[in-house]
Amino acid sequence: MAPRLCSISAAARRLLGGPRPGAGDFAAAARFYSKDNESSWFRSLFVHKVDPRKDAHSTLLSKKETSNLYKIQFHNVKPECLDAYNSLTEAVLPKLHLDEDYPCSLVGNWNTWYGEQDQAVHLWRFSGGYPALMDCMNKLKSNKEYLEFRKERSQMLLSRRNQMLLEFSFWNEPQPRAGPNIYELRTYKLKPGTMIEWGNNWARAIKYRQENQEAVGGFFSQIGELYVVHHLWAYKDLQSREETRNAAWRKRGWDENVYYTVPLVRHMESRIMIPLKISPLQ
Predict the structure, then answer these.
(1) Cβ distance 59 to 243 under 8 Å?
(2) Per-residue DSSP letters for the chain?
(3) Which residues of 40-59 are buried (b: 16+ CB within 10 A; e: fewer)?
(4) Maximum separation of any 2 CA atoms in the chain, in Å
(5) Tens digit of pLDDT for each residue in 99-109?
(6) Do 181 and 281 meet the contact criterion of CB atoms below 8 Å apart?
(7) For 31-61, what is each residue's pLDDT tens digit?
(8) Positive or negative, the Cα torsion across 124, 215, 175, 76?
(9) Do β-strands 68-77 and 157-167 pair in parallel, antiparallel, or remain unpaired?
(10) Minimal CA–CA distance to 89: which of 49, 37, 146?
């Protein structure tokens, strides 16, 4: 074993730029290595110690002055039922939105135009965070009209999924807007451990995408699939979308944001969506 240990020590010394070791160095290194394998100087050459974070992503990235929680729903509808589904949701969901006894409000309601077909997307805001969410869910359990709505809706769906979201502190809070507009929901699934880096880069870059009021909202997942980011944009039409996105590339600094954030992404997708009649975002 001695020749093998000596060979490793010499290689390590050459990496450090130190002098060639003598026989006494080999013996000392062997004794030191055998005392505590975990804390040896050899291991310290290759192990980078990382200080643990003291705060959760939700604390570092979300807005401090509000306690809004968001829920996004994706409903895949049977193709032959899409019109009936839209009519049903337009009849029932506004009642929850307008009822002050329910601490929830509609942010936006859409059908996917380009992307996953025959799909409805709903975005809700719960003012008051998780307590507001639970209050709303408990009240809905005894809402006979809503229970009947869910039963009828279930006959129209192929599948559904949802996520609980928080909004990035540096994005606009979604506000009702007049139309007509089309909306793009860009979804980024990040590599685990990269959310803070994503937020730091976009906090600097969002200024490049606000001249035409296209930035609607930015969110990251808290429950459901994790390390998922949703950016919501509004455009007058597809041509306006193309011109606005191209204009961003002519602004110094936008290319750097793309350069540093693309390696953080493991998957991304885009939906072009058309608002329903009841959507506050038109």
Answers:
(1) no
(2) -HHHHHHHHHHHHHHHT-PPP-HHHHHHHHHHHHH-STT-HHHHTT----PPPSS-HHHHHB-SS--EEEEEEEEEE-GGGHHHHHHHHHHHHHHHHH-TTS-EEEEEEEEEEESSSSEEEEEEEEETHHHHHHHHHHHHTT-HHHHHHHHHHHTTEEEEEEEEEEEBTTSPPP--B-S--EEEEEEEEEPTT-HHHHHHHHHHHGGGG-TTS-EEEEEEEEESSSSEEEEEEEESSHHHHHHHHHHHHTSTTHHHHHHHHGGGEEEEEEEEEEE-TT-SB-
(3) eeeeeeeeeeeeeeeeebee
(4) 87
(5) 999 999 999 99
(6) yes
(7) 443 444 444 444 433 433 334 445 555 555 7
(8) negative
(9) antiparallel
(10) 146
| pTM score of the predicted model | 0.78
Using the structure block, give the residue that is written with the tokens 């950016």.
Answer: 231
Count Cα atoms within 13 angstroms, Cβ side, for 273: 29
Q: Which two tokens stand for residue 89?
A: 């949701």
